[in-house]
Design a protein that fits this description.
About 25% of the residues lie in helices and about 15% in strands. It is α+β, with helices and mostly antiparallel strands. It has a two-stranded antiparallel ribbon.
Amino acid sequence: MQTGEYNVKPISGAEGTEFLLYRLTEEEIAARKKKRAELVGTMPRPRASDNFREGEKFRFEKMKDIDGS
């Protein structure tokens, strides 16, 4: 499922919750990738953060892990 090469659809008339897992065709995979790329292209930019400045590089000398080292 995570690869984007498969899809799931419910089986009509089946008792309970039954689904069919099937592999997409190359055309369906290409169409899905194109649609996702279009969606990502139209998404708004995330809001600016007070903690991270855009264009400013991280300074690792002041960073500490959860143990303080």
